[in-house]
Amino acid sequence: RAAEAQLLVQFDKFFPTQIDRYVEPFIGGGAVFFHLKHRFPQMRAFLRDNNDELINTYKAVRDFPRELMRRLDRHLTAFKTDRQNYFYLIRARHHLPPDEIVERAARMIFLNKTCFNGLWRVNSRGEFNVPIGSHVNPALYDEENIHAASRALENVHLATEDFRDTLDATRRGDFVYIDPPYFPVSPTASFTSYTKDEFGAEQQKELAALFANAAQRGVHLVLSNSDTDFIRNLYRKFRIHTVRARRMVNCDGTKRGEVNEVVVTTEG
Predict the structure, then answer these.
(1) Cβ atoms within 10 A of the Cβ of 172, count?
(2) Helical H runs in 153-261?
(3) What digits encode the pLDDT tens for the residues 77-133?
(4) Contact 262, 227 (CB under 8 A)
């Protein structure tokens, strides 16, 4: 949370002073959306991701917050009774029916809070495969946060969608914040996959082309990525700013800490 807050302070100068339509193709943890929704309560938001489990979780928080917390309470009780077996039992439930919104969301949150390093990583079949972490009594949720997030998500349009389709649908005057899977800063840095689809150099190039096309249509865009020559070259025709970010997720503990990231903007 502190790392996110510190980044948002640096990002503020890149955000517009007014937003009508807000679009985010890689919603992830949603920190920027919640920050902007607090500032611009009237903005219309279109949140997208190609991770269907993640979009489903946002829908559960928005539409069924109390049921979700009750289900998480049951997960925690069972987890405390038999940590190892219960974690792997829930992890093995890969393909719950799509209409079981609360059950799927509770599974995702439970696994995220009890797995190693809080990673969400899946294999080529789209199955979550992170081992159990060291938590004995994890906090699966904060009731106040769930209710606040539920209110912020009211009337927000959520959908599972590929970033290409999301960006193609943007129009003049939209504000788009893009936070894609980051390009690795070294050959060994890319150790997670959040969905079964890879996001490598080719996808980064496609994203940069879509960014340029949207900018030509009069869309206002801000993009975050790693500070590498590859990324700087892709966006060399735009304004590139440097920010300092605290990165807590790295398989090598010595490499956690502050790193440079780039923020690419079409304005300002």
Answers:
(1) 9
(2) 163-168, 201-216, 229-234
(3) 999 999 999 999 999 999 899 999 999 999 999 999 999 998 888 888 889 999 999
(4) yes
Task: Look at the block and give the residue holding tokens 């009337």.
Answer: 155
- The residue among 168, 166, 233 whose CA lies nearest residue 204 is 233
- For residue 217, give both structure tokens: 């249509």
166 phi and psi angles, rounded to 5 deg:
-60, -50
The single-letter code of the amino acid at 100 is E
Residue whose structure tokens are 């539920």: 150
| Contact status, residue 243 vs residue 11, Cβ threshold 8 Å | yes
Mean pLDDT rounded to a whole number for the chain: 91
pTM of the complete model: 0.90
The upper half-sphere exposure of residue 202, i.e. CA atoms within 13 Å in the direction of its Cβ, equals: 2
Axis crossing angle, helix 83-91 with helix 101-114, rounded to the nearest 10: 130
Task: Say how far apart CA 78 and CA 72 lie, in whole Å.
Answer: 10
Can you say how many angstroms the Cα of residue 209 is from the centroid of all Cα atoms in its chain? Answer: 22
Q: How far is CA 156 from CA 21, 32, 37, 45, in A?
A: 11, 14, 10, 5
What is d(CA 41, CA 109) in angstroms, rounded to the nearest whole number?
26
> Distance (Å, rounded) from C-alpha 113 to C-alpha 1?
15
- Mean pLDDT over 126-153 rounds to 95
